[in-house]
Amino acid sequence: MLEKGILVGLGTDGMSSDMLSQMRTAYLLHRLDNLDPRVAFMEAPQLLLQNNAAIAKRQFGLQLGELAEGLPADLAILDYHPPTPLDENNFLGHFIFGLPDATVDTTVCRGKILMKNKKILTLDEEKIAARSRELAPKMWKRL
């Protein structure tokens, strides 16, 4: 599809919305399918970053994928401690193989901080977890 100029994005229909892991999986599957380790090294991040933003703009009129004045400030700050030096020459390798395993430290949505220091600021996580534990046995009985 990419070779035919079709705008392809990256997504998931599963419970997990871990798009960094989905990007790594897309890279590995394309590599395996083509029996070539060079395939999709640049394309997998492009699907996630540039192409998904272009699809959102086309379908919903949203300007996403960059930090600029007047645009939604949606971002996640990851707690990533690279095992090797990180620079502009090896960033994609870290992006594909290191960052998917990093934990989220802070999230910002439309300029509002929703999580800081790994704590969700807008919800009571302990209360929600306790309620979930309370309701889970009833749900499992219905299944």
What do these coordinates show?
The chain has 143 residues and is of the alpha+beta class. It has 2 domains: 72 residues, no CATH class; 71 residues, Urease, subunit C, domain 1 (Roll). It is 41% helix and 13% strand. It contains 4 helices and 4 strands. The protein has a 4-stranded antiparallel β-sheet with strand order 1-2-3-4, with no helix packed on it. Strand 2 and strand 3 form a beta hairpin. The longest helix has 18 residues. It is globular, with a radius of gyration of 19 Å. The protein starts with 18 loop residues before the first helix and ends with a helix.
The biggest sheet, with number of strands, parallel, antiparallel or mixed sense and barrel status, is: 4 strands, antiparallel
Domain count, please report it.
2
Global structural class: alpha+beta
Portion of residues in helices? 40-55%
Instruction: Give the low-confidence spans.
Output: none
| N-to-C CA distance | 40 Å
Radius of gyration: 19 Å
Average pLDDT, to the nearest integer? 92
